[in-house]
Automatic annotation (TrEMBL):
Superkingdom of origin organism: Eukaryota
Annotated SUPFAM superfamilies: Ribonuclease H-like
GO MF terms, alphabetically ordered: RNA binding
Limits of the Integrase catalytic domain: 1-132
Protein name (database record): Integrase catalytic domain-containing protein
Species of origin: Austropuccinia psidii MF-1
One of the protein's GO biological processes: DNA integration
InterPro entries reported for this sequence: Integrase_cat-core, Retrovirus_Pol_polyprotein, RNaseH-like_sf, RNaseH_sf
Amino acid sequence: MFLPFHKDDTAMDTAIMIWNRFISHTGLFQNIKSDRDPNFTSALWTNPHNLFVTKLSLSTAYHFQTDGLAERMIQTLEDMIRRFCAYGLEFKDSDGFTHDWCTLIPALELAYKTSIHSSTGKTPEMLEKGWNSRLPYDTLKKDLVDIHPTASSLEIILDKERHHANRCMQDSFKYA
């Protein structure tokens, strides 16, 4: 889960953010994998971990005894935000309010969770929930053929090529 924290956030701010954005929606977790941020190692977190039998796994980058998963995810998120900020991308809503990278955290999280990872060949969402969310792109891609005539002719060509490839495979089995 990607949450927009600030450097001056306290452990209480962190706990409230996690409650509002995670626990209230999905329930308690069995394990929190985190870097060694003081907000997660403070006494505020020690008591709830003991009370709710939740394990806090602290990872360290480039350390052979930990997998560095939290650091890797943070690095990926920072890269995503950096690419967004490099172009100075900001957008204004209908009221003229300018939004920055913090408002895009949910969209960046969705992009991360629905992207196929090379290490597993699956999306994190598929591994976590057993299915992938239906995205706006999924509803649009089936209509693209109807929108543009080139897309329609390309779909016809692809169907013909699939049929031709299947015939070639059948012929190769027949004459093998």
